[in-house]
Each structure stands twice: as structure tokens, then as C-alpha cells.
Amino acid sequence: MSQSEMIEALPDLLPSFGLERADIAFAVNGAAVSVNVPPLRRLSQVLRDELQLTGTKVGCDAGDCGACTVLVDGDAVCACLMPAASAAGTSVTTVEGLANGLLSALQASFLAHGAAQCGICTPALLVAATALLETKPNPTEVEVQDALGGILCRCTGYRKIVAAVMDASLQAAGLDFRMPQSGHAIGSSPVRLDGVPKVTGGEKFGGDSFPADALAVLVVRSPHYHASFAFGDLDGWAKKHPGIAGVFTAADIPGKNCFGVIGPFADQPALAEGFARLRGEAVALVAGERETMLDLDLQDFPVRWTELPHFLLPGDAQADGAALIHANRPDNLLTKGFVERGDPEAALAGAAFTATGAIDTSYVEHAYIEPEAGHAYMDGDTLVVVACTQAPYMDRDDTAKVLGLAVDKVRIVPTATGGGFGSKLDVSLQPLIGLVALKTGRPAALAYTRNESMMSTTKRHPSEMKATIGADAVGRVTGMVFTGDFNTGAYASWGPTVANRVPVHASGPYATPNYRAEGRAIHTHGPISGAFRGFGVPQATIMQETLYDELAGKLGMDRLDFRLKNCLRNGSETVTGQRLESGVGIFECLDSLRPHWARATADADTFNSSNTSKKRGVGVASCWYGCGNTSLPNPSTIRVGIAPAGEVILHQGAVDIGQGSNTVITQICADALGLPLERFRLKSADTAISPDAGKTSASRQTFVTGKAAEKAGRALREKILRFANVSEKASLQLDGPAIVIREGEATRRIDLAALDMDSDGFVFRAEETYDPPTLPLDAKGQGKPYAVYGYGAQIAELEVDLKLGTVKLLKITAAHDVGKAINPLLVEGQIEGGIAQGIGMALMEEYIPGRTENLHDYLIPTIGDVPPIEHILIEVPDPEGPFGAKGLGEHVLIPTAPAILNAIRHATGVLITKVPATPTRIRAAIRDKEARA
Amino acid sequence: MIRYAKPTTLDEALALLGEGAWRVLAGGTDFYPAQGAKPFRDNVLDINGLVCLRGIAETESHWVLGARTTWTDLVRHPLPAAFDALKQAAREVGSLQIQNVASIAGNLCNASPAADGVPGLLVLDAEVELRSAATTRYLALQDFILGNRRTALLPGEMVTAVRVPKHAAAGTSAFVKLGARRYLVISIAMVAARLVIDKGIVTEAAVSVGSCSAVASRLSGVEAVLRGKPALSTLADAVLSAPMAELSPIADVRGTAEYRLDAARELVARAVLGACGLTNDNRMVAA
């Protein structure tokens, strides 16, 4: 169709198609309300937009996630599936109606159990569980699961949710909000400092604070994997739709239309120019009044697509003559990482036993329950972006670059983030809403639909891996070679990080004297692969740990003993030649699993001796993971001070996406400073008010920002002590607007109001930066890539239905060396949540572009899919980490999938070499084995 | 402007239906996901004001399930054991939130090959009551659902009830659903089985399979094999060698065609044993 035809196809002025509005009256949380809305408006929108009850969340608009669950006349429903008309005359209960001034017993129980992490699914869980508890005050585990089975949580692994609901009746006495005493914050598990709003519905996520007058923004996206495009008469189209304030394309971008998380590899346009490299790529923005936009059909948007050949697999991308996705990247190779040590070929040739295998993994979607959302507005000449994120300063810099602004003219205000897991490190809508606000001068708001979130944001890299590992006759690993191709999709994102991290970690936490590993990031027209909890290490660990089981079998060794024999110890050298002097806790992790291993394998044997159609299996796998950037600067800065009112003000810039940095960083700072947690007030990671504490990524916040918080706390303490002219032995106490300092018999009281206050409102202040000491990797990948590693090992016990290929998980036992558990409850939460994601990766999660762009075709574990988890916290202090602490956020996911695959092989005799191990794949492998027998 | 109407009497609703094309809105659980973020452009007939269409009644000859009866309504209503398979299926329709509003007729009109309610209704010989302003007609359920997302609904018609003849409400039944996770899952395959057992012998057998053909289907070959056999665990062996020509599964993101056939046969055996009361752990088989 030509441009002129397109224009002629439009009527002179499109009529308003919308529905007539109606007055609809009902009760919400006991109060009568009346709204004037079209009768088909979703109840979720009515609650959020008309009644400002934003505790009811929208995660999918399709009933697939349950985040919008409310009670209508006492029954749980998805508010996104209910027309406003059906609410008329009913009584609706939302999360805001549960507290009644005081927290309900259930809300208190959620906080006491650590059942809320990011908090985005929490309102729905609370509402649905409230309905359950009305009829069953002491529900069983299965009753809880049946009642909450329709609500997805991506953070917690559900176990603490189940416990919180089952124990709610015990919680009636109220919640103990008492904070640990001064000097005892570390190692205690107080109610998370940001917890209360998560259970009341008060927490504001990316989509919860849109200004009433904000323009709504829609994004026009490529329906094709690869296509060129041309716009028709955009102005003419806009004029025919009253209420549209503007249409924006790449031509409107004032800065450099190219962003990316790693500067030298930046390659992604905010709005594509002339052609799109992936399905879902943004090409234009339409901004307009909210009601107009709700009724706008983009079907007739004047863009003409010309589909171009595309490829989705690395093999096709590297085939002779394959078109280049980026002209400057030959062979569609983004980059590769390489580590070599010793002589692996000779070692393998001389090995008594070798095991060789290949594993393929799939795209994995982060599936946080909060799709990307935010709004932007102009504050004078400063662009303010209020959005969910994992990396405010990186957002600031990329947004400024795209929009041609100085970085100090962009302010990023992070909202609560409803899960991130790596994908919210990259900018998504920030430059888009920023552009609209900049161009129109009006606030601009956008919440991605689930579909556009899944299509356009990053994924875990699919991998195609091969490896051989050799051992000597006594079971000592002598050598390993590994190659992995990682499908990095259309743009770089974190592909280079994955390519570099994998070769460093592919040995697992095992001494491997002769080693070669190569990781390659290869462009395709598939979804962009970026950061996802582990940066490629979870994939590589599947390869290594399944081969370890095979080697143990060939050696006739117990699989756990084989690992214990080879694991790194203090004084070991890693595959990059880094000598680990102390703090290596993998032996302790594996050793702590011994009794569990003996019990589990005996249980499985007993079961298997009397069952034929179902077989049980037990598997074990380890992890290690370097905390922070790989051989790159990675600083965090923490500012802390004393305000005249006697409060400790902590600029806590480590974005809390649910994992608990608001609480953990404060605990560290409190004990370093020597003042109690309860006197701390947090300032958020707003780039206008807090220094850069780096991104929430790479398991770095507890370690790196924690270390900065420790240093800042100690520095502040030092300043106060010096002011008081007392020694390091003195104790501090805040007594109203005064600091009381005691040393021996002497007491000194400093009246804070009498001191000079600086422009930030402090009378004492300290600001400290910490950057982990690393060394670059040389051409053979030798060096000191990380200052701190964390370790762990997990046992999976499961039952395979041989006839159906289904897997029923029975138990996961997880031993993790965290150096020092700053907050044991939060550590458990990380472990359980990581395991749940590992379960998903192992058994069900497979993102297929164009086919699983929703949460009913793309499956993540539900509350019925996570078995009991026993955690064993190992504390082998790290000499570098704050109070000995190591990171753990990513570690916890890594062993789960290989432990499950090893358990499936133990149960069935078949190794699944393509994950996820779906019923189809398991059954096919069993059939193949039976056919061979 | 598009039209929206929420009639309160069936006559009014049928009169409106006769006036032109409408999308019917009942529980909304398929309506809204199909709509997505698109604006409304169809006339919508909201039948949630039709109180008469919700509830379960017993007549001389039939059990009558009103079109708007929700899955939760069904679960809560005392019914003969022959309905157990349907009740078990009801608990697997989406989630509790879905079951609380989604209607039985909506599940049929949506005509998904994976509709959880269909196998359980097929083994009850269910029929669909279709009314227009002019006439009322009844169609056997297998004649109502014509294919993937296709039904025999004529312009001006709506489903007003689903009826189960008393003769088919006999015996015991069981439902087995196979999915890749425990809750909130579209089935890879599912089976409903209803058996009438007299003096230890299967005298009547009704077996149907969903998600393994464009429309869930009764398995006449399996039913024939089961009739006359003792209600023992050996029924499973009979199932495993019985013809299942009705199944023609496709491969999709949930499983391969080969797997579906393989699994369906196993599920049929389990559902049959479940209907005999020989096993009781088969309500949901999740990976």
C-alpha cells in the first residue's frame, strides 16, 4: 500500500468508538463508592485509576498471574477479568482493607516470616489468603496451596508464604518490631525495614504513582524479527485522532540514539531507525490523553513493514554468507571470553577416565510480576524519570545520552521494583517516556503490557555447550575443555559479561589444573539476551555438574565424595590462576550435605525397591560465583550522617528489588557505626539525593555496597569519637537530639542541635567508596577477576513418573557459604527464591519467540511446584567482605538445575541434554533408553 | 459508539441478540484475555444480569446446569458421583479466582481444544441448550463444538443451559489432567472416565480425552473394550491395547504429538482405575 492510499483509507475524522460511561456504585473496603466509567472497564483499572487503590497490581491482564486478586462479596477474583459493571452492588475487598489501623495477623505473619520480598504479588496473596482463613483458620499446606495456586510469585520460592499463612493464627499477639540492640544488628533478622508498606498495599511500584495529568504513551513495535519500515503521514494520522498529543520516532531523538549497559558495546537504538532487528523492537511512540489512548487502536498506525530474512539460532547466524546484524561484528560474533591454564589436551589424553557431553539450554524469561512501568516529567530544565529499576545511575547516563542532556539534567527516582533478576538493569521505557516529557513538556506515563515486556526486554541466554572432563585413576580431576555458544539476540546488552563470566566459572568450584574454556556471544534476530541471575554460569554449571556425575560413575565413586575430593580449598588456585588464600567454603558446604545425602540416597533406594512405574532419584551440584564485575571497576559509595534530631541518615543507594539491601546495608552500617538500627532513616537511591552505590547485580550489593557502608559507618564513628576526644573503645548512644558517649566511667554528651548543620542537614557525616580489588585477565584469561567468591551446594530429591515423564520434587537441601549471614531470614529468602527459579529453568521454562509471550504459555513455578527446602547456612568468613560476608543472590540459583538433572538421571538412567526437562523430553529419553535395552 | 447492553431478562437478551452481532460477556475470563490491550470495537451483550441462567436444577429427566453457573457453583453443589470427574475438572480450571467467575457455558463457547470442562461433560452425555428469540434447540455437546474455536452457535442464539440426562448421571467417574506445573496450567492432555459397575463388571463406560484433538473426544474403542470386563486393575491393560483412533494431537509448546498420544493412553488407564476407585491420586499430574 502506498502512503497516499493509507491516508485515503482513513476517514476524515475517526469517530469515538468507546463505550458510553455509566455510574457504577459498589462498596470498597466497607466504604460506598461510585465511579463513572465505561461498563467494560476492568475492575483492576477502576480500583487503581479511579479510586487510587494501587495496592491491587496488574501483572498480565489475563488471569495468568493473579496479582490483581481482590475479594468480591468474599470470593477471590482477578480484578483484571471483571467488568466494572459486574462490581455494581457488590462489596469489594482490596489489600488496603485488610489492616484496619493495625496490621492483620496475616499481614504481621507475612512480615515475621519474610514472606514478602519485592512485594508486588504480596497484596494478592494476602487478599486470597484472607478469604481462605475466613473459613479455615488453621489451613493445611495443601489447602494453602490450593487457595493461592493462582498467584505467581517470582522472588520467594513460596515456602515462606505457605508458612506465613499456616501460622497466621499464631501471629494474633502482634508483630515484634523490636530492633536488635546496638552492635547486634549483624546476624539478626529484624522485620525488614521496608516491610510494612509491602503488606499494606502502600508500596509504590513503577506504575503506582502516575500523575493524573500525565500523557499516556503507547509504543509501536515491530511485529517481525527483521524488517525495514517506513512511516506514512504521521501528522495526518495524529490529527485524525483527537486527544493525541504527539507521535515520536527516531527522528525526534535529540541525542545519540544508541544505548547499552557496557559503553564500548552500546548498539541499541531507543527507537529503531529504518529497520528493526527483533520482534518487539520499539519504532515509534504515541502520546495522548489517557482516555483517548485507552480507546486508540494502533491497527491503522501509518507504518509500512517490509519483512526481511531472519535467523534465530547461532548456527544460522554463523553460517557462511549469513547477513550481519551489526555491520561491525563479523560472523555475527559479539565477543568471546577465553580462559586457558596448563595443557588440557595432554591432561585429557593422559586421564584414566573422561566424560564428554553436550547440553543445550533455552531462553528464560525473568517473569517478574511487575512489568516495566514509570513516568517522566520536567522539573525546570531537569528531566525526572520515576520508574522501577535495578541501576539508577546507569539509567541516568543512558537516558541523558539518548536525549542529548547533560547527566546532571536527568534525575532518576527509583520506585519500588517488583522483581528484576537482571532485566531491569537495562533501560527500557526510561528514554521513551523521557522523550515524550522532553518534547511535550507534560508528564508522560507508561506501563508495559505483559506482552511487550516479554517481547522487548532481555532474557537468559540460550546456550549450546560442549565439554570434556578427565580424572586420574584415584578420582582427581586433571583437565577440562569447554566451549559454549550463547545466543545473545539482536543487541549486545550483557552478552559480553556472559561470554567472559562463563569461561571463568565453567570449572565449577573444583581444582582443575589443566583447562580451556571459551564462551562466545552470537547475535541473532531473537530476543536480546542480557543479565539474568548468574550471567551464563547457571547454564555452564549444568554442563560441568552433569559430567561430574558421569565421571563419578566411571570411577565407581560416590558422587558427593567425588566432589569433596576435587573441591577448591584455601590455598587452591582457580582456573584463572587466582590463589584463594582463605574464605573458601565449598568443602564445608559439601561436607554439611553428607548426612542428608546418606539419608536421601537410602530413601530413594528403599522406594525404588518396591516401585516400578515411579522411580526416585537424588542429585547434587555445587556452585561458585565471583561477586561484582569481572575484572572491571565496580565502586559503591555510601553517605551516612547524623541529623540534629538525633537520627542516623543513611543514603542507601543499593536499589532493593526485594532481596533486602535496604535492611542488610543498614545492618552493616549500624554495627560499624555502633548505633542501633532503630535510629536509622533511609534515603533512597534517587540520583539527586544519594551517591552511586552501583547496580543491583552480580551479587555485589551485600559485598561491595556493604563494604562501603561498613567503611562509611566506621568513618562516621571515627569523626564522632574524635570530636568527643575519646578512644575507639568508647560506646555511642543516641539520646533524643544528643549523642551520649561513654568510655569507662567517663560520659560525654553532645547536644546535636548546638552543632553546625551542613547543607545536607548533617551535623556529622561520612562518605566512603569501596571498589573491590581485582586484576585484569590476560590473553589467556589469567588474573584475579574477583575479590570475593561465594559457594554453595544443593541436593535435589525427586520422583519421576516413568510413564508420563513428569517430575515430582520431594525436597531440596541447600548449603550456602555466605561468609557471614548478615540477616539469616533474608538469606533464606534468597536461597528459596533462587531455587524456585532453578526449578523453573530445569523443568518448565522455555521462552519461544512469538509463541510464549504471555504467562500461560510461558510457565514459571507455582506455589505447588516448590518442595520443602532445608537450608544450611555456612559461614566461612571472607577476609575482604564486610564482617566476612559474601554475596549470594545468584549463587543460590546455580546448583538447582544441575542437581535436578542429576537426580533425574539417578532415577531413570537418562540424562536430559536439552533443558528444560519437560515431560515430553523426559519421556522421549526414557523411550529411547527402553528401545535400546 | 458501540453498543453495550446488560439485560435482566432472558427475553430481553434474546431480543437483543436477534438485532445484530454481539460478543457475549459472561465470566470474562476468556473475554478479557482475548481483548488484551485493544480497545473495544464489538457490541457487547453482558449476560451477567441474567440471574435465571445461574444455578443447578434437577428435573424429571435431566440435571440442568444454567449457562452462567460457575465452576465454584458446581463444586459446591451436591451431585451424583457420576459428576465427580466434572467436579475434579472444575477445580483445575485456571485458578480459584477463575473458577469463582468463569461460567460452564463460556468454557464450551470458547471452544478451546484444552477446555478443562469438556471431557467431564462428554462422559455425562451432556447436551447444550441453545435459545434464540424464535426457538430452543438442543445439541449433543460433541455436535456443538465443531473445532478449535468453532461452535454450532447460530446468529441470534446463545447457550442458556447445559443438560445432563439422568441416565448418564449414573456410576462413578474420575478426571486426570496432565500439565507441566501444578496450578494454573493448560493441560498437555486430560481424561475423564465414567463407569457403571454392576456386580463387579463394567456395564457402561464413557471415556473422553481433551487436548489431543481439535475437539475433546469420546473414545468409542476404549469404551467398547471396557464394557463387560471385571472392574479390576487389569482394566488398565485393556486400555493400553485399545484403539484410540479419535485422537489426533498436534505438537505445540506444551508437548509433542507423539508424547501426547503416549501420555493420553496412560492417563486413560489411570482415569479408568480412578473411576473404579482403585487409585485416588490422579486428580492432577504435574511435572
From TrEMBL, chain A:
Question: What is the top-level taxon of the source organism?
Answer: Bacteria
Q: Which PROSITE patterns match?
A: 2FE2S_FER_1, 2FE2S_FER_2
SUPFAM superfamilies, from UniProt?
2Fe-2S ferredoxin-like, CO dehydrogenase ISP C-domain like, CO dehydrogenase molybdoprotein N-domain-like, Molybdenum cofactor-binding domain
Keyword annotations from UniProtKB, A to Z: Iron, Metal-binding, Oxidoreductase
Under InterPro entries, the record lists: 2Fe-2S-bd, 2Fe-2S-bd_dom_sf, 2Fe-2S_ferredoxin-like_sf, 2Fe-2S_ferredoxin-type, 2Fe2S_fd_BS, Ald_Oxase/Xan_DH_a/b, Ald_Oxase/Xan_DH_a/b_sf, Ald_Oxase/xanthine_DH-like
Per its record, what are the GO molecular function terms?
2 iron, 2 sulfur cluster binding; iron ion binding; oxidoreductase activity
The record's comment on protein family reads: Belongs to the xanthine dehydrogenase family.
* The protein's name in its UniProt record: Molybdopterin-dependent oxidoreductase
Query: Which species is the source of this protein?
Result: Mesorhizobium neociceri
Q: What is the lineage of its organism?
A: Bacteria, Pseudomonadati, Pseudomonadota, Alphaproteobacteria, Hyphomicrobiales
From TrEMBL, chain B:
Q: Which SUPFAM superfamilies match?
A: CO dehydrogenase flavoprotein C-terminal domain-like, FAD-binding/transporter-associated domain-like
FAD-binding PCMH-type domain segment(s): 1-169
Q: Which Pfam families match?
A: CO_deh_flav_C (PF03450), FAD_binding_5 (PF00941)
Give the matching InterPro entries. Answer: CO_DH_flav_C, CO_DH_flav_C_dom_sf, Diverse_Substr_Oxidored, FAD-bd_PCMH, FAD-bd_PCMH-like_sf, FAD-bd_PCMH_sub1, FAD-bd_PCMH_sub2, Mopterin_DH_FAD-bd
Task: Read off the PROSITE patterns from this record.
Answer: FAD_PCMH
Keywords from UniProt, A to Z, are:
FAD, Flavoprotein, Oxidoreductase
Q: Which GO terms describe its molecular function?
A: FAD binding; oxidoreductase activity
**The protein, known as:** Xanthine dehydrogenase family protein subunit M
Q: Which organism is it from?
A: Mesorhizobium neociceri
